[in-house]
Design a protein that fits this description.
By secondary structure, the protein is of the alpha+beta class. It has helices at about 10-25, 25-35, 50-65, 145-160, 185-190, 240, 250-260, 280-290, 295-300, 310-320, 360-380, 400-415, 430-440, 465-485, 490; strands at about 70-75, 75-80, 85, 90-95, 105-110, 130, 135, 170-175, 200-205, 215-220, 220-230, 235-240, 325-330, 340, 345-355, 385-390, 395, 420-425, 440-445, 460. It has 15 helices and 20 strands.
Length: about 500
């Protein structure tokens, strides 16, 4: 069934009182965000997980007060380097009143944050929400406490105005996303035939717009991380004594890393580029309408030029094609000053961002085969070891899926423009994992701005995005309900 994104279904008479409530209570919503931001829920080390559990409890209490049934699901324990075991913070599973006649939407979010200190370069205290020039600064404001609260405020808006929620709502909120969501994939599999059994759609708001215009994200790249270890002499050597007479591990490593990537950005590992599907005309058109300014981006990141000359070329290189980046060399001298040591062992580190049709296992095989082949040609007496630590798969959704049509209509209702349909160059494993395990439709519906600085100093979300984003979620509920009802019964029950 072909669904037309341009034809809106939401009645203004339904949405106007809901939007009015949001406007009238925006200060209250901002204050609540400040309360959540004040909790230093940095999940980077188990020592700090007490604060993660505190904000999870605040979240669970809030959802319970709104009338939902809340479960704090156990996701096992984490093994520490010293051999001790510590329980992971629980995952919140919640559901509001379920009506079998309605579509069921599951909303995912997280309330843990990246580390932040004032001395890192923050203009404000990272754990005190501060409003400056219409922006709300604070760690977690956009990633991901702000969007999680916006979803809760959207539900509250229906309840407070005595409007019936047009869809069933389930929530899954965790506290370890910033460190890999350990235990969540297993929990999803465990709950596939219970919590997820009646879910029709899964929505994630854990990313930001690509430009100044609203966006909907339909794909992310995967990632594989590699370590290339070259070991030679049994000890570090003096270059004045042994330089010119031994095969230096560093020189071998540089040759290996140089064999991976061309100066045009092309990956040189045989077979990897052949995995990538060719660009279709329909797909290429999606990039033409994206309001991405090359000159502005050059100034923002401080480069003279990109590897590609066109907007479409740059965006495809960032989102649609694989990329390889070299990140560092362990064992090399990196301090200030000079040193004349020949390292006995060095480890090069690089990653490959994967796109659809690239399987991490096959990529790992081809990379290892390539590096060992290059190393053999060096005829070096040193030893080579190549390992891989991450194999996250890419994710790509169908833009004709009903919830994408609903999302596009909701953006047009709230912002008055068609959303940009974008892909994410980074890796968000949860999108692929949810789809793979549950088989449900997954969409990413961001409300954060392109300049929010998630993970960096001075993270923020604008008041405008926070409040308009809440309206977007309200409209999305309405649009999704109408579209789901219009689907043939056989399609709704698939």
């Amino acid at each position: 069934m072909l669904l037309n994104p341009a034809s809106r279904t939401s009645s203004p008479s339904v949405l106007e009182p809901l939007f009015q409530y949001i406007e009238q209570h925006q200060d209250e919503f901002v204050q609540r965000l400040g309360e959540w931001v004040s909790v230093q829920s940095d999940s980077s080390t188990p020592v700090l997980w007490g604060e993660v559990e505190r904000v999870l409890s605040m979240t669970a209490d809030r959802i319970t007060a709104m009338g939902a049934v809340v479960e704090r699901a156990d996701v096992g324990a984490q093994q520490l380097p010293d051999g001790q075991s510590v329980r992971r913070p629980p995952v919140i599973l919640a559901q509001f009143h379920m009506d079998p006649e309605k579509a069921t939407l599951c909303i995912y979010g997280h309330v843990d944050v990246q580390p932040a200190k004032k001395e890192d370069g923050w203009v404000t205290d990272p754990y005190t929400l501060t409003e400056l020039n219409g922006n709300l600064y604070g760690r977690g404001a956009t990633d991901n406490k702000g969007p999680v609260l916006a979803w809760l405020h959207a539900i509250e808006t229906y309840q407070a105005t005595r409007h019936e929620l047009p869809v069933n709502i389930k929530l899954i909120i965790e506290g370890l996303e910033e460190v890999g969501s350990d235990g969540l994939d297993e929990l999803t599999r465990r709950c596939k035939d219970s919590f997820f059994s009646d879910v029709d759609y899964i929505v994630i708001s854990d990313n930001v717009w690509a430009t100044r215009r609203p966006a909907i994200t339909y794909g992310t790249r995967g990632s594989s991380y590699f370590f290339v270890e070259v070991e030679g002499p049994k000890t570090d050597l003096h270059s004045g004594v042994f330089g010119g007479s031994v095969h230096e591990p560093m020189m071998d490593l540089i040759a290996l890393l140089d064999s991976l990537l061309g100066h045009t950005g092309k990956i040189l590992v045989p077979g990897l580029n052949e995995m990538v599907a060719p660009v279709t005309k329909e797909e290429r058109k999606l990039y033409e309408g994206i309001h991405f300014d090359l000159q502005e981006m050059k100034k923002e990141i401080g480069v003279q030029r990109f590897l590609q000359d066109s907007k479409e070329g740059v965006l495809m290189a960032r989102w649609r094609y694989p990329s390889l980046s070299i990140h560092g060399i362990e064992g090399a001298f990196s301090n200030q000053g000079s040193q004349t040591v020949i390292p006995k062992q060095v480890v090069g580190k690089f990653s490959i961002r994967l796109v659809p049709h690239m399987e991490p296992v096959e990529v790992e095989r081809q990379v290892k085969e390539h590096l060992h082949g290059v190393f053999a040609q060096l005829n070096s007496p040193n030893t080579l070891r190549v390992t891989s630590s991450v194999g996250a798969k890419p994710w790509l959704a169908d833009l004709k899926d009903p919830q994408y049509v609903a999302g596009r209509r909701a953006v047009e209702v709230v912002f008055g423009v068609e959303p940009e349909l974008v892909r994410e160059g980074s890796t968000i494993p949860i999108a692929h994992n949810f789809h793979k395990v549950t088989g449900k439709s997954v969409m990413m519906l961001p409300i954060g701005g392109h300049d929010d600085g998630e993970h960096s100093q001075n993270e923020k979300i604008s008041r405008y995005n926070f409040i308009q984003g809440t309206k977007l979620f309200v409209a999305y509920f309405q649009e999704l309900s109408m579209l789901h009802k219009s689907l043939p019964e056989i399609q709704r029950n698939v």
